[in-house]
Write a structure and sequence with these properties.
- With 154 residues, the protein is an alpha/beta fold.
- It folds into two domains: 1-33; 43-145, Nucleic acid-binding proteins (OB fold (Dihydrolipoamide Acetyltransferase, E2P)).
- The protein has helices spanning 4-30, 57-61, 92-98, and strands at 54-56, 71-81, 86-90, 108-111, 122-132, 135-145.
- The chain has a five-stranded mixed barrel.
- A hairpin with a 4-residue loop joins strand 2 and strand 3 (86-90).
- The N and C termini lie far apart (89 Å).
Length: 154
Amino acid sequence: MRNPKAWAVLAFCFLGILALVAVVQKRIQTTDTTQPPPEKTWAEVDVGEAEEIVLGVEELMKSPSLPKGEVCVHGVVSGKSKERQLLTLIDTAEFKRCKILTCAQLSLPVRWDGPMPELEQQVDVDGEIKKEAGQLVFVARSVHAIKEHTEDGQ
């Protein structure tokens, strides 16, 4: 490289790279990399001492760990089979957005041997998660139909 202009261009590029590295290092040093404290997992919640834990279908199914003991799940009945003693719930908020039973991404299978609620009925289901035939299922102790309040209070 006998050309002085080539040396100047090379030196200029080298200085630019050094400046870029310095800026990146400074940004890394000033960026807060601390993680927020993890939320309590269901394994850490003592269900026995809580008055009542009420969860939505999505909240329960997307939870990083499953609650131990009895909980109440609030949802909308999206399917039912008296013969199989099974009903399925979808999240109430998702049903209110879509207004149809088939748009939900998640549905919770519920083992229930009592009277079956109507499709599209909002319910509170008390029970616990158990393993049946290698699969997790919510086993209901009780199912309560929820009467939806209208704007006029009826």
